Amino acid sequence: MFKGLLNRVRVDLVRSYYPKRGLWSPIDTQHRPMGVADQASVRLCCGTLIDMMSMRTKWRSSLDYCSKYLLMVYSTYEDEAHRSSGGAETTATTLKWWALAMVAFPEVQRRAHAELDAVIGRDRLPTFADAPRLPYIHSVIKEVLRWRPTLPLGVPHAADEDDWYEGMFIPKGTVCIPNAWHCNHDRAIFGEDADNFRPERHLDERGELLSGPVETNQAGHVSFGFGRRICVGKELAANSLFISVARVLWAANFERARDENGRELPVDTETIVDVGLL
Ligand code: HEM
User: Fold this and answer.
1) Closest ligand 1 atom, CA of 180?
2) What pLDDT, on a 0 to 100 scale, did the predictor assign at position 255?
3) In this structure, how many other beta carbons lie within 10 angstroms of the beta carbon of residue 61?
4) Taking the alpha carbons of 212, 214, 218, 219 in that order, is the dihedral positive or negative?
5) In which element (H, E) is residue 42 found?
6) Nearest CA, atom 9, ligand 1
Protein backbone atom coordinates (compact mmCIF):
# COMPACT_ATOMS: atom_id res chain seq x y z
CA MET A 1 0.00 0.00 0.00
CA PHE A 2 2.82 2.39 0.83
CA LYS A 3 5.14 1.60 -1.99
CA GLY A 4 4.36 4.47 -4.30
CA LEU A 5 4.10 6.92 -1.43
CA LEU A 6 7.33 5.85 0.17
CA ASN A 7 9.07 6.11 -3.07
CA ARG A 8 8.39 9.83 -3.00
CA VAL A 9 9.29 10.24 0.66
CA ARG A 10 12.60 8.47 0.43
CA VAL A 11 13.83 9.86 -2.83
CA ASP A 12 13.32 13.34 -1.45
CA LEU A 13 15.50 12.45 1.52
CA VAL A 14 18.25 11.21 -0.72
CA ARG A 15 18.20 14.48 -2.58
CA SER A 16 18.46 16.47 0.64
CA TYR A 17 21.34 14.39 2.06
CA TYR A 18 23.81 13.63 -0.65
CA PRO A 19 24.61 16.92 -2.33
CA LYS A 20 26.03 18.14 0.99
CA ARG A 21 28.36 15.17 1.45
CA GLY A 22 30.81 16.04 -1.29
CA LEU A 23 31.46 12.32 -1.79
CA TRP A 24 30.28 11.90 -5.31
CA SER A 25 29.83 13.67 -8.54
CA PRO A 26 26.99 12.59 -10.78
CA ILE A 27 28.41 12.47 -14.28
CA ASP A 28 25.31 11.12 -15.94
CA THR A 29 23.19 13.74 -17.68
CA GLN A 30 19.97 11.79 -17.40
CA HIS A 31 18.80 13.03 -14.00
CA ARG A 32 15.09 12.94 -13.49
CA PRO A 33 13.24 15.47 -11.32
CA MET A 34 12.76 13.94 -7.90
CA GLY A 35 9.43 14.08 -6.09
CA VAL A 36 8.64 15.47 -2.65
CA ALA A 37 7.00 13.82 0.31
CA ASP A 38 3.39 14.72 0.76
CA GLN A 39 1.97 15.30 4.24
CA ALA A 40 -0.85 12.78 3.88
CA SER A 41 1.44 9.88 2.98
CA VAL A 42 3.79 10.54 5.91
CA ARG A 43 0.85 10.82 8.30
CA LEU A 44 -0.63 7.59 6.96
CA CYS A 45 2.65 5.77 7.34
CA CYS A 46 3.37 7.02 10.90
CA GLY A 47 -0.20 6.38 12.00
CA THR A 48 -0.01 2.75 10.90
CA LEU A 49 3.27 2.27 12.75
CA ILE A 50 1.81 3.67 15.93
CA ASP A 51 -1.13 1.26 15.57
CA MET A 52 1.28 -1.64 15.10
CA MET A 53 3.29 -0.63 18.15
CA SER A 54 0.12 -0.32 20.22
CA MET A 55 -0.85 -3.84 19.19
CA ARG A 56 2.56 -5.11 20.28
CA THR A 57 2.16 -3.53 23.72
CA LYS A 58 -1.04 -5.53 24.27
CA TRP A 59 0.87 -8.79 24.41
CA ARG A 60 4.00 -7.40 25.96
CA SER A 61 4.34 -6.27 29.56
CA SER A 62 5.82 -2.87 28.87
CA LEU A 63 7.63 -0.78 26.31
CA ASP A 64 11.27 -0.07 27.06
CA TYR A 65 12.64 3.44 26.92
CA CYS A 66 13.87 3.08 23.38
CA SER A 67 10.53 1.97 21.97
CA LYS A 68 8.83 4.77 23.88
CA TYR A 69 11.29 7.15 22.32
CA LEU A 70 10.65 5.81 18.83
CA LEU A 71 6.91 6.06 19.38
CA MET A 72 7.35 9.61 20.61
CA VAL A 73 9.38 10.45 17.54
CA TYR A 74 6.81 8.99 15.16
CA SER A 75 3.77 10.43 16.89
CA THR A 76 4.69 13.90 18.05
CA TYR A 77 6.65 15.62 15.34
CA GLU A 78 4.37 18.22 13.91
CA ASP A 79 5.88 19.12 10.59
CA GLU A 80 6.60 16.88 7.69
CA ALA A 81 10.37 17.35 7.60
CA HIS A 82 10.82 16.41 11.27
CA ARG A 83 8.49 13.45 10.99
CA SER A 84 10.31 12.14 7.94
CA SER A 85 13.76 12.54 9.47
CA GLY A 86 12.72 11.08 12.85
CA GLY A 87 11.34 7.97 11.18
CA ALA A 88 14.14 7.71 8.69
CA GLU A 89 17.40 8.13 10.60
CA THR A 90 18.36 4.45 10.39
CA THR A 91 17.48 4.22 6.71
CA ALA A 92 19.33 7.45 5.92
CA THR A 93 22.42 6.24 7.79
CA THR A 94 22.31 2.97 5.84
CA LEU A 95 22.15 5.00 2.62
CA LYS A 96 25.18 7.02 3.70
CA TRP A 97 27.18 3.81 4.23
CA TRP A 98 25.94 2.60 0.85
CA ALA A 99 27.14 5.81 -0.83
CA LEU A 100 30.54 5.38 0.82
CA ALA A 101 30.67 1.76 -0.34
CA MET A 102 29.94 2.85 -3.92
CA VAL A 103 32.85 5.28 -3.74
CA ALA A 104 35.18 2.77 -2.06
CA PHE A 105 34.31 -0.28 -4.17
CA PRO A 106 33.90 0.85 -7.79
CA GLU A 107 33.77 -2.74 -9.08
CA VAL A 108 30.56 -3.27 -7.09
CA GLN A 109 29.07 -0.09 -8.50
CA ARG A 110 30.02 -1.17 -12.04
CA ARG A 111 28.22 -4.50 -11.61
CA ALA A 112 25.14 -2.73 -10.20
CA HIS A 113 25.14 -0.31 -13.15
CA ALA A 114 25.45 -3.24 -15.56
CA GLU A 115 22.44 -4.96 -13.99
CA LEU A 116 20.35 -1.77 -14.17
CA ASP A 117 21.36 -1.15 -17.79
CA ALA A 118 20.49 -4.72 -18.79
CA VAL A 119 17.17 -4.94 -16.94
CA ILE A 120 15.87 -1.35 -17.08
CA GLY A 121 17.71 0.35 -19.92
CA ARG A 122 18.03 4.12 -20.22
CA ASP A 123 14.45 5.07 -21.13
CA ARG A 124 12.80 4.92 -17.73
CA LEU A 125 13.50 4.85 -13.99
CA PRO A 126 13.45 1.56 -12.04
CA THR A 127 10.18 0.87 -10.20
CA PHE A 128 9.12 -1.54 -7.48
CA ALA A 129 7.83 -3.88 -10.20
CA ASP A 130 11.46 -4.38 -11.26
CA ALA A 131 12.55 -5.58 -7.81
CA PRO A 132 12.44 -9.35 -8.57
CA ARG A 133 14.70 -8.82 -11.59
CA LEU A 134 17.40 -6.86 -9.72
CA PRO A 135 19.07 -9.43 -7.42
CA TYR A 136 22.43 -7.67 -7.45
CA ILE A 137 20.85 -4.43 -6.18
CA HIS A 138 19.27 -6.43 -3.34
CA SER A 139 22.58 -8.11 -2.57
CA VAL A 140 24.30 -4.71 -2.33
CA ILE A 141 21.68 -3.50 0.14
CA LYS A 142 21.91 -6.68 2.21
CA GLU A 143 25.68 -6.33 2.31
CA VAL A 144 25.54 -2.70 3.44
CA LEU A 145 23.16 -3.69 6.25
CA ARG A 146 25.47 -6.54 7.25
CA TRP A 147 28.77 -4.73 6.83
CA ARG A 148 27.82 -1.52 8.67
CA PRO A 149 24.77 -2.09 10.90
CA THR A 150 23.20 1.24 11.88
CA LEU A 151 22.61 -0.04 15.41
CA PRO A 152 25.75 -2.15 16.03
CA LEU A 153 24.66 -2.83 19.61
CA GLY A 154 20.99 -3.16 18.72
CA VAL A 155 18.45 -1.90 21.22
CA PRO A 156 18.75 -2.94 24.90
CA HIS A 157 15.93 -5.00 26.42
CA ALA A 158 15.31 -6.24 29.97
CA ALA A 159 14.42 -9.87 30.77
CA ASP A 160 10.74 -10.18 31.81
CA GLU A 161 11.54 -13.26 33.88
CA ASP A 162 14.44 -15.45 35.03
CA ASP A 163 15.89 -17.27 32.03
CA TRP A 164 18.72 -19.51 30.85
CA TYR A 165 20.70 -19.05 27.66
CA GLU A 166 23.36 -21.55 26.60
CA GLY A 167 24.09 -22.49 30.21
CA MET A 168 24.07 -18.90 31.48
CA PHE A 169 21.54 -17.77 34.04
CA ILE A 170 19.87 -14.44 33.22
CA PRO A 171 17.99 -13.07 36.25
CA LYS A 172 14.73 -11.17 35.70
CA GLY A 173 15.41 -7.50 35.02
CA THR A 174 18.84 -8.08 33.42
CA VAL A 175 19.46 -5.64 30.59
CA CYS A 176 20.59 -7.55 27.50
CA ILE A 177 22.52 -5.75 24.78
CA PRO A 178 22.75 -7.68 21.49
CA ASN A 179 26.07 -7.45 19.67
CA ALA A 180 24.75 -7.15 16.13
CA TRP A 181 28.16 -6.06 14.88
CA HIS A 182 29.78 -9.28 16.02
CA CYS A 183 26.93 -11.42 14.64
CA ASN A 184 27.21 -9.73 11.24
CA HIS A 185 31.00 -10.13 11.18
CA ASP A 186 31.16 -13.65 12.60
CA ARG A 187 33.74 -15.60 10.58
CA ALA A 188 32.13 -18.90 11.58
CA ILE A 189 29.00 -17.80 9.69
CA PHE A 190 30.21 -15.49 6.92
CA GLY A 191 33.69 -16.92 6.32
CA GLU A 192 37.19 -15.50 6.60
CA ASP A 193 36.27 -12.45 4.51
CA ALA A 194 33.43 -11.47 6.85
CA ASP A 195 34.90 -7.99 7.33
CA ASN A 196 35.02 -7.33 3.58
CA PHE A 197 32.27 -5.68 1.55
CA ARG A 198 31.26 -8.44 -0.85
CA PRO A 199 27.61 -8.44 -2.06
CA GLU A 200 28.24 -11.69 -3.98
CA ARG A 201 28.10 -13.60 -0.69
CA HIS A 202 24.29 -13.20 -0.87
CA LEU A 203 24.06 -14.68 -4.39
CA ASP A 204 24.27 -18.19 -5.82
CA GLU A 205 26.37 -19.11 -8.85
CA ARG A 206 23.55 -18.03 -11.21
CA GLY A 207 23.44 -14.58 -9.58
CA GLU A 208 20.12 -15.24 -7.81
CA LEU A 209 19.57 -14.19 -4.19
CA LEU A 210 20.47 -16.84 -1.64
CA SER A 211 18.54 -17.47 1.51
CA GLY A 212 20.79 -16.10 4.31
CA PRO A 213 22.39 -18.25 7.02
CA VAL A 214 19.96 -19.85 9.47
CA GLU A 215 21.65 -17.91 12.32
CA THR A 216 20.38 -14.71 10.68
CA ASN A 217 16.88 -16.07 10.20
CA GLN A 218 17.62 -16.21 6.44
CA ALA A 219 18.06 -12.42 6.26
CA GLY A 220 21.84 -12.40 5.66
CA HIS A 221 22.34 -10.07 8.67
CA VAL A 222 20.78 -9.30 12.05
CA SER A 223 20.67 -5.53 11.64
CA PHE A 224 16.91 -5.32 12.19
CA GLY A 225 17.12 -7.06 15.57
CA PHE A 226 15.66 -10.29 16.85
CA GLY A 227 12.50 -12.23 17.63
CA ARG A 228 9.28 -10.57 18.67
CA ARG A 229 10.94 -7.19 19.05
CA ILE A 230 12.46 -7.22 15.57
CA CYS A 231 12.20 -3.85 13.80
CA VAL A 232 8.59 -3.15 13.01
CA GLY A 233 9.61 -0.99 10.05
CA LYS A 234 11.95 -3.46 8.35
CA GLU A 235 9.82 -4.04 5.25
CA LEU A 236 9.31 -0.31 4.93
CA ALA A 237 13.07 0.19 5.27
CA ALA A 238 13.82 -2.55 2.73
CA ASN A 239 11.48 -0.97 0.18
CA SER A 240 12.88 2.52 0.82
CA LEU A 241 16.44 1.26 0.44
CA PHE A 242 15.62 -0.66 -2.72
CA ILE A 243 13.98 2.21 -4.58
CA SER A 244 16.56 4.76 -3.39
CA VAL A 245 19.55 2.62 -4.35
CA ALA A 246 18.06 1.49 -7.68
CA ARG A 247 17.04 4.99 -8.77
CA VAL A 248 20.13 6.86 -7.62
CA LEU A 249 22.40 4.28 -9.24
CA TRP A 250 20.32 4.37 -12.40
CA ALA A 251 20.85 8.13 -12.62
CA ALA A 252 24.29 8.69 -11.16
CA ASN A 253 27.85 7.49 -10.87
CA PHE A 254 29.72 7.81 -7.57
CA GLU A 255 33.36 8.84 -7.89
CA ARG A 256 36.12 9.62 -5.44
CA ALA A 257 36.87 13.26 -4.80
CA ARG A 258 40.19 14.43 -6.27
CA ASP A 259 42.96 16.67 -4.97
CA GLU A 260 44.15 19.80 -6.79
CA ASN A 261 46.39 17.63 -9.01
CA GLY A 262 43.51 15.44 -10.07
CA ARG A 263 44.60 12.48 -7.96
CA GLU A 264 41.84 10.46 -6.31
CA LEU A 265 41.63 11.00 -2.56
CA PRO A 266 41.70 7.89 -0.34
CA VAL A 267 38.41 6.67 1.12
CA ASP A 268 38.12 5.82 4.82
CA THR A 269 35.58 3.04 5.41
CA GLU A 270 36.52 2.44 9.05
CA THR A 271 35.83 5.68 10.88
CA ILE A 272 32.40 5.77 12.44
CA VAL A 273 30.84 9.15 13.13
CA ASP A 274 28.58 8.83 16.14
CA VAL A 275 26.06 11.60 15.67
CA GLY A 276 22.36 10.96 15.42
CA LEU A 277 19.16 10.10 17.18
CA LEU A 278 20.01 6.48 18.00
C1 HEM B 1 17.74 0.47 7.74
C2 HEM B 1 16.73 0.87 8.51
C3 HEM B 1 16.43 0.37 9.90
C4 HEM B 1 17.20 -0.36 10.76
C5 HEM B 1 18.64 -0.87 10.54
C6 HEM B 1 16.42 -0.58 11.96
C7 HEM B 1 16.85 -1.30 13.07
C8 HEM B 1 16.09 -1.53 14.18
C9 HEM B 1 16.52 -2.32 15.31
C10 HEM B 1 17.89 -3.02 15.45
C11 HEM B 1 15.51 -2.33 16.21
C12 HEM B 1 15.51 -3.06 17.56
C13 HEM B 1 15.01 -4.49 17.36
C14 HEM B 1 15.20 -5.36 18.58
O15 HEM B 1 14.97 -4.89 19.70
O16 HEM B 1 15.60 -6.54 18.44
C17 HEM B 1 14.42 -1.55 15.66
C18 HEM B 1 13.22 -1.34 16.29
C19 HEM B 1 12.23 -0.54 15.78
N20 HEM B 1 12.21 0.06 14.55
FE21 HEM B 1 13.64 -0.03 13.14
N22 HEM B 1 15.21 0.01 11.81
C23 HEM B 1 15.16 0.60 10.56
C24 HEM B 1 14.10 1.29 10.00
C25 HEM B 1 12.92 1.56 10.62
C26 HEM B 1 11.84 2.30 10.03
C27 HEM B 1 11.84 2.86 8.61
C28 HEM B 1 10.87 2.36 10.99
C29 HEM B 1 9.56 3.04 10.92
C30 HEM B 1 9.19 3.86 9.97
C31 HEM B 1 11.34 1.65 12.17
C32 HEM B 1 10.63 1.52 13.34
C33 HEM B 1 11.04 0.78 14.44
C34 HEM B 1 10.27 0.64 15.68
C35 HEM B 1 8.93 1.30 15.98
C36 HEM B 1 11.00 -0.20 16.51
C37 HEM B 1 10.64 -0.69 17.92
C38 HEM B 1 9.99 -2.07 17.79
C39 HEM B 1 9.70 -2.70 19.17
O40 HEM B 1 10.36 -2.37 20.14
O41 HEM B 1 8.79 -3.56 19.26
N42 HEM B 1 12.58 1.18 11.90
N43 HEM B 1 14.80 -1.09 14.43
Assistant:
1) 10
2) 94
3) 8
4) negative
5) helix 39-58
6) 224
CB 276 within 8 A of CB 93: yes
Query: How confident is residue 6, by pLDDT bands cut at 50, 70 and 90?
Result: very low
From the list 144, 147, 145, 117, the residue with the least C-alpha distance to 234 is: 145
Structural contact between residues 229 and 158, judged by C-beta atoms closer than 8 angstroms: no
* C-beta 53 within 6 A of ligand 1: yes
Nearest CA to ligand 1 atom 32: 233
pLDDT in tens, 120-160: 999 999 999 999 999 999 999 999 999 999 999 999 999 99
33 CA → ligand 1 middle, Å = 30
Provide mean pLDDT across the span 52-71: 47
Non-local CB neighbours of 17 within 8 Å, separated by 6+ positions: 92, 95, 96
pLDDT in tens, 148-201: 999 999 999 999 999 999 999 999 999 999 999 999 999 999 999 999 999 999
Q: Could you tell me which of 89, 94, 92, 54 has the C-alpha nearest to residue 71? A: 54
Find out whether the beta carbon of 232 lies less than 6 Å from any atom of ligand 1: yes
- How far is 192 from 14, CA to CA, in rounded Å? 34
Cβ of 154 below 6 Å from ligand 1:
yes
| 224 CA → ligand 1 middle, Å | 6
Domains of the chain as residue ranges with CATH? 3-251 (1.10.630.10)
Number of Cβ within 10 Å of residue 128's Cβ equals 14
Give yes or no for residue 219 CB within 6 A of ligand 1: no
Report pTM. Answer: 0.76
